[in-house]
Amino acid sequence: YSLFSLSGCPRATFAGKKGKLSGDEILNTKFKTSDVLENDEEIKQLNKEISELNESNSEMEAAMVKLQSQISTMEKNLKNIEEENKIIEEQNEALFLELSGLSQALIQSLANIRLPHMEPISEQNFDAYVNTLTDMYTNQDCYQNPENKDLLESIKQAVKGIQV
Hints:
Elements: H1 10-19, H2 23-29, H3 33-109, H4 126-138, H5 146-159
């Protein structure tokens, strides 16, 4: 045996045996062609699913932005409505105070004038008294006799000084 020949070297023989693999072993340790094709199809399918998810996420984000915009608009509208309601409440309160003042002035002015078949005007019968007055003035032709004319004139004079 030559010193330069590997066949005589025990280490080389062992390394050679160790390095030699059968065809089945090579197929088992390396990817088979079918495995590569399957993996390629799986990757394509995964990429497709990722693309679909991204598209779905984009649509959801757009919907969320639109929804947030709608919520913001609704909140602004609600705030405006609340402010308008506050103004209306203040106006109603002012009108109620004015009406209260007018009703007190009317009660004082008409305290001594008795309508037929009615008690003198008071807070308790105020509405009925005003309804009767309204009816008398709306249907003045029914109150043409001298007694009723005098009553209507007395009422006119009594309420003349009330500022509306």
